[in-house]
Each structure stands twice: as C-alpha cells, then as structure tokens.
Write a structure and sequence with these properties.
alpha+beta
Amino acid sequence: MKAHVKTATHYIRSIIKHLRRRGILTRKKFLAVATFINALFLFVIGLNILSFPNTTVGGVHIGFKTKTAVRELLMRAYASPIILVINAQQYELNYEHLGIYMDPDAAVNEVFAPNESGWPTNIKLFISQLFRPRNVRIPLSVSQEFYEYVAKINENGTKAQDIVYVNQENKQVTLFTPEMRYVVDTPAFLRDIYAHFGTQDKPLTVALVEAPNVLEAKISAANTKLTNVYNSPLTVIVGLNGVNQFITLSESDLRRYTTASISAETGEITFAINNDTFLPDLTAALSVYKASFNPQTAYERVGNGIKNTLTTRYEGGPASSVKVGIDSGPNTDGGIADTYIEVDISQQKLFTFKEGSLVKTYRVSTGKDYPTPIGTFKILNKTGLGFSSIYNVWLPYWMGFEFSKELHAYFGIHELPFFYSGDKKIQRPREFIGAPNTGGCVALDIGDAKEVYQFADIGTPVVIYQ
C-alpha cells in the first residue's frame, strides 16, 4: 500500500511541476489542486483502514474506527455484564454465563465488509452511509448452554401445581390453575440480546409468554373418554355354583357404584368401587338366586371385573359385559378358543379347556414379588427346562406367554422351581402352591406342570383374570 502511494505521489508531483513550468498552473490553482488531491488521497486511504461512517453494532458506535479500535470496542461490550429482568427479578451475568460466544475476528470482518467490496461499490456504500446508518448484526454463537439456561427459567416459571378433580356426579374432569405460569419467548429473547449488545447499562427484560398447559388437551380427551365409559349399561355375568347369573347395571348405576380419579401430573384416569353403595346392592342382587356365596369374595371379584371393564372402555374398547366367577369355577365357559388356558389369580387356579369343555382344574401360585399380568396372551415359547437369570433357579416345563420390557424377561407357566447348592437339589416348597409366591409367573405343582405342558402348544391362548 505504501509503495503504491509513494509511486502515485511522485507521478502527480512530476505532472504539477510540468504544468507550473509552462505557466498553466498558477500558485492559487496549485494550492487548490493540492488540497483536493490530499483530501482525495486521505479519502482513498480511509476507505481501506477506517470503518464507514454511521456504523453501529447494537448500541456500539464504531464509525471511522480502525480495525484495532473496533475490536477493542466490541470486546469491551462483550465482556460487560448484562442485567436481565425475569418476572420482576434482576439477575446480573455476562454473555458467557448465558452460553453466548463472540468470534472477534468474524465480528471485525463483518464490520469492514463494505470496505472490501471494491471500487466503485465501496464509494457508493460510503456515500450511502453518510445519510443512512448501518447496524451490523454481531456474529454471536448460541450454544446449548443458552438453551439449558432457558430451560431452568422455564422450570421455575411452571412450578405452579394444577388442581384437577373428577366431578363424581357427571363424571367429568375439571382443571384449576392457581396462578399464571410462564416460559421464555426464546426467539424474542435472542433478538433482544442482539439488539441490546453494547447497551448493557440498561436492564434487558426477558420476553415471557404464558406456558401452554399440557394437561388441557389431556383433560379434554379424558372427558370424551369418560363420556364413552358411562354412556351405556354393563352386564355382569356372575358364575355362581356353576350357573351364570346376569346383573345389568344402568348408566346411573355405574356412576353411583364407581368413582373416577385423575392424576394431576399425568392426566391418567383410574377407577374405584364405592364400598358403601356397591356391596349391599350386589349382595341383595345375588341373594335373589338363593345360592350360597361369600359376600366379600363376590364384592372383590365383581368389583375388579367392573373396574377392568371400565378401564377397557376408557381405552377405547367396546366392552358391554364382563364375566366373573365368585365360586370355585372358571370365569369362562369354554368359548374362548378350541383349546386354551384360563388362570384366575383371585382363586389361585388354572383351568384347561378343550372343544368347549373344562378339561381339568389345577392349583397354582402367581405373582408376589411382581404382579402376574392380566389379559389375553398366548404361548410364545416352550422348553422342558428353562432358567431364570433373575432368581438363578431352574424352571421345569417352561411355557413363556408375555415379555416384560420393564424386567427384560418373560412371564411364563412352569413347575415349582429348583436350584442346586453344591450337589444338592433344593426344591421350592410345595406349600407355595395356592397362594401368591412367585416373581410374576404362574407356578404349578410337581406333576401338574407336565400335564399342562403336554396340553398346550405354541400359540395356545392364555386368559388371565384378577
């Protein structure tokens, strides 16, 4: 640059001397031309080494500054603390605390971009900025730390606990939010940070918006489902002394006999039986059939059947009836499939059916450490001798019917387990049969498991009742 200026200066001086010798350039004209040329040179030099006039970065004025000066001003502004106002509370921190970083070289290059645009564009831009200011968007990098900081603000802003309850008369959910909750308007917050750069002496109010209530949509869906649960009667088919008795509960009966509860955290609905109204009415209804039964057993089994059916309806199932057994018999009548297995947890019994008839009844032991799953399954795998890595025991006549993702293991039907202590075989006590004592499987007595193993094939349905 210096060499070019020196050469140009020498060339122009030669021309001026030549014009003065010939009398073309007077002293007065010479001074005027010299002044103009010096101003022109200063202007050309300024185009390369100084920022253009009326240039700002946020609130930092950096017109007619060298790159070194611009860099110092920007670094000073970046290092200055920021006062954030969040929900009327003030917090003093800096850009790095917010997880926002500045590349000073990139910032300086952005400021001096018009200088590098080349002739005559740089001239036009220079003249334009004399009348129209240019605000440079500072190149800031927003890291994951910024979004983690915003998440902390949002966590504090959404701590108010919703109150939700079910009106037990109309079985509809009501939501009450005790106070307004807020979250950060992140795009607006970022825009304000860029605009606020260099004016840290003034507090920056963080833009907040009302937090969306995630429960509202869940409650709306829950109310629709609850309407479907209670808009049709339910027939309870009670197996009593080998005979099916039919009790029809109207929509109003279902509302009166049951309660629905909702979780304020998840929006999930659970059902329960009203003891005071359901037990005496059920006892009176069954007494008409003049059959002996245990009222408490009847209440528990019929009540569980109703709760499970309401849950099925809530989840979209069209259940219009429920079959339960309150004596020693099975819940089903052989019509599930040509060949299938039924397990009744409340009776601790297993029933085998073939071609519509009950084949045999067995005493079992179901889940104690972990509940045996309820529902309809099928035999998925079989082996004469399985092994549980959870309990480190051998499982004779294993038949797996359900895989638990939570336990990373199968539930199955098998004989009482055993293990070895040295060379000695230790058998689980046969007294375990008839009461819940397993880790979730269905255990049969010695000899019984072999019969069921030979009865069932891969794909044989397994129906388990509570």
